[in-house]
Design a protein that fits this description.
The protein is α/β, with parallel strands linked by helices and 252 residues long. It has helices at residues 8-12, 38-50, 84-99, 116-129, 165-174, 204-207, 221-244; strands at 19-24, 60-61, 105-110, 137-142. Helix 5 packs across helix 7. The radius of gyration is 19 Å and the shape is globular.
C-alpha cells in the first residue's frame, strides 16, 4: 500500500499494527561516473521490487525521502545534505507523525551508508521518548545488509563500497545512460583498513580523490540484476518478520 495514493480516511481504517515503511536515501556525489541521485534511484528500485512481494499488502509505504546525512561528501559539488542533528530530528518527526495516529510498527529502510548511525540514534531516542510503551517496534535496515553478502560468479567485491562494482552494476541495470565516461578505465580505489578494528572519523577526500571506493570497472548489467534480486528478497523477508511479530517479545 502506498501512503501517497491513499486518502486520510483510508489510512485511518488500517490496522494499527500495519508496518509503516519509510525509505530513506540521499543525493550526493558518486565519483566521476555515477549520478548524484544514485542512492535514491537504487533504493527506489529495491522498494519497487519489494512492493511486488506478498508482504507489501500488509505494509504502508511512505514516499522515498531523498535528503540524507551526507556531510562527509560535501567537498564534492552536487551533494545535498542535512546536518546530523537536523537529520536525526527529521527521522524522529517522520516516525512521530504515524505514532501519533496509533501505528505501532515503524521500519526505516535505508539506502545510504551515512544514514545508518543517525538512524540508529534516532530510533534509540524515540524509544526513550516512548519508554512506557510495550507495543512499539521501531527498526531500521540498510538494504545491502538484508540478505547477507551476495555471492555469485564474477562478483569481485565482498562488501558495499561507494560508486563501486555493486552500485555501478545496479545503475547499469537501471539507467545505463547515466553512467559517464570510460567505465573500464575507472581505477580501483581499495577499501583499506583505516584503523580497524577501531573507528576513524573521515571525509571522502581522506579516502578517495575521485570520490568512489571499490572496483567500478568490474560492474556489469547482469551483476546489477542479480544484486537487485538479492537485496529485494532480503528486504521483503525482513518486512515479513516485522509484520509477523507477535508483540511483547524481544526477538522477531
Amino acid at each position: 500500500m502506498d501512503l501517497a495514493e491513499l486518502s486520510w480516511p483510508a489510512v485511518a481504517t488500517l490496522p494499527r499494527d500495519t508496518p509503516v515503511v519509510f525509505p530513506v536515501a540521499a543525493v550526493e556525489q558518486h565519483g566521476r561516473h555515477l549520478p548524484t541521485f544514485t542512492d535514491s534511484m537504487l533504493l527506489g528500485e529495491v522498494v519497487r521490487r519489494v512492493k511486488q512481494a506478498p508482504v507489501a499488502g500488509r505494509c504502508l509505504f511512505a514516499p522515498l525521502q531523498w535528503l540524507g546525512n551526507s556531510h562527509h561528501h560535501a567537498d564534492f559539488p552536487g551533494t545535498l545534505s542535512a546536518s546530523p542533528r537536523v537529520y536525526l530530528d527529521l527521522l524522529k518527526a517522520l516516525a512521530d507523525n504515524v505514532l501519533a495516529h496509533g501505528f505501532t510498527r515503524v521500519v526505516f529502510v535505508n539506502g545510504h551508508g551515512g544514514n545508518a548511525v543517525p538512524l540508529q540514534q534516532a530510533l534509540f531516542e524515540l524509544r526513550q521518548d516512548h519508554r512506557a510503551r510495550r507495543d512499539l517496534l521501531l527498526v531500521s535496515l540498510t538494504y545491502w545488509d538484508a540478505a547477507g553478502t551476495p555471492s555469485f560468479p564474477g562478483l569481485v567485491q565482498t562488501q558495499m563500497g561507494h560508486a563501486c562494482e555493486w552500485e555501478t552494476s545496479m545503475v547499469l541495470r537501471l539507467a545505463p545512460h547515466l553512467v559517464a565516461g570510460d567505465l573500464p578505465a575507472v581505477p580501483e580505489v581499495p577499501f583499506g583498513r583505516g584503523f580497524a578494528p577501531g573507528y576513524r572519523a573521515w571525509t571522502m577526500p581522506d579516502r578517495s580523490e575521485p570520490g568512489h571506493i571499490g572496483t567500478p570497472a568490474a560492474a556489469t548489467t547482469e551483476k546489477g540484476e542479480a544484486l537487485f534480486a538479492h537485496f529485494a528478497a532480503g528486504v521483503a523477508a525482513f518486512l515479513d518478520r516485522v509484520a509477523a511479530w507477535p508483540g511483547g517479545t524481544w526477538d522477531g
